[in-house]
Amino acid sequence: MRWLAGGIVSTVLSDLGSGRRSLTHEALDELPADKVVEHIRSELVATGTLPQRDEQMVRLERLVNDLVTSHTTAEKRKILHGYATWYLLRRPRRRSRGNDITHTQLTVVRQHLRAAVHLLNWIEALSLILATCRQADLERWVTSDDIRHRREAGHFVRWVLAQKIARDLSFPAVRWNGPSQAMDDEARWATARRLLHDDTLKYEDRLAGLLLLLYAQWPAEISRLTVDHIEETDRAVRLRLSAAPSTLPTAVLARPLGIDVTAAVKWQRAVAGD
Question: What is the span of the domain harbouring residue 77?
Fold first, then answer.
């Protein structure tokens, strides 16, 4: 009730109810982009009042528009618009196959776009343009101390070469052998069941995989777990993955897997070199 009576919440809902603001996504987009407005939108979508849409893609398109229009030269705006529209945005749309893109995909595209902006700004500071930039200039940027997003910039350089915007440049690619799209729910549960029941897999891999799949823990975080993160009693085993410890359900406990919890965490601790 306190949240409903708050300043912007009360104003937005009053405007929507009275008809002063249209009950559409576009009308909400006109409001300042903050968490309160996004929560109101999510509640309206959850109740079926507004149709569902890919919010991550909308944020991404807004970011692209803001970054492109912020540049003063028409040439840079044209290059960034082409790179963002026909390469960066096209890839997640194709890979998502009609599903909403993920926050990770949004982050990756944002990093790639900022890498292109950073490189273009550096070239402009040398009074150069892409057409006159040479390999020696690119290598000077790659080895500079203030470089950001070096790997992501490689995608931009290779796109520029493919579009014949620049010549005499080379930025080798590192082949990606990871997944080409987000894992769907069925695949996630199938993998979790295998980790729970497949005795042919190493027990430490099974435990680490379950923490990743069921508790959304990054591999780097899992490798830093120690025995201090475990609270074991006669009735439950709790794992401190955040401020509040999580009680592990029976299916995820180490004992049904034939593992000793402390031994598994010690193994992870050894991997981290702790």
Answer: 56-162
